């Protein structure tokens, strides 16, 4: 079955090389045979498949292996630097772009989510949680120009997936077919108590109890339970915070470009106290925590994961078992990226 994000009757055309069997190769070199599609024939080097159910109004076929190569070139650019840690790559930034474009999903109204790429517009672009993500969009713009038929919303999700895999993370299925909304009028609105900050989670609600309740409030709206909340929080093991973006500073781990369970180990095994100084001067930023060296940080929303009894049991599990974390992380990120995607109920995407 070919999963698509919108459902209007159409054919899917996918290019195959002359002499090749009718198989779509995944970006990670794993293929999905078209025998599972509703119908498929090869005509003049093209696979013509009628999926079971319907697909979006067809954009020109996109060579996702070629897109992947261009994204990897961006990830490998030695000129990229990060003021908060050495040896940076754009991988964590691309993950954050995909995360935040998907994290607006509301299961109750079926609005928001990864379909639309509305972060290109105001007011979503200026939500506090999205500070700095214009940089990620700009870095991917040359890739978009090379593949103009590809939607921004597909590109952002695919770049996040490639970033995760390039940083040693699990393979995550990718289902193309998202479409781009035309203006800021399509930005998702949120009528909840945090509506001024958009639909994304905040780092501190004033107390551990309120912050834990806030996390559940935001993530339950997207369809995630406590275990999934903790698994998704593992993304904080990548990258760092910046004073000129969120106001916070520093990386969470000493391996900020490697997908691992280090975030949970740091939470459990390290000592965390309120940050009061920064580089020899009084800290004037928002409440955050630091380890004894002052090199690593945690947000109040991170610390609450070991303060809340239900959250903590999953932190402890992932700290002890990296394989368990990687399995759950891959599954929950895939679920996140499918949020708001009309074909997300399909069992498999084109690439999995």
Written description of the protein model:
The protein has 352 residues and is of the alpha+beta class. 34% of the residues lie in helices and 10% in strands. The protein has ten helices and twelve strands. It has a three-stranded antiparallel beta sheet, with no helix packed on it. Helix 2 crosses helix 4, helix 3 crosses helix 4 and helix 6 crosses helix 9. It starts with 11 loop residues before the first strand and ends in a 14-residue tail after the last helix.
Short description:
It contains ten helices and twelve strands. It is α+β, with helices and mostly antiparallel strands.
Please write out the topology:
Blueprint: E1 12-15, E2 23-25, E3 31-33, E4 39-43, E5 46-50, H1 64-75, H2 91-102, H3 133-146, H4 152-166, H5 208-222, H6 226-233, E6 240-241, E7 250-251, H7 262-269, E8 273-274, E9 277-278, E10 281-282, E11 289-290, E12 297-298, H8 300-307, H9 309-320, H10 322-338
Antiparallel strand pairs: 1-5, 2-3, 4-5, 6-7, 8-11, 9-10, 11-12
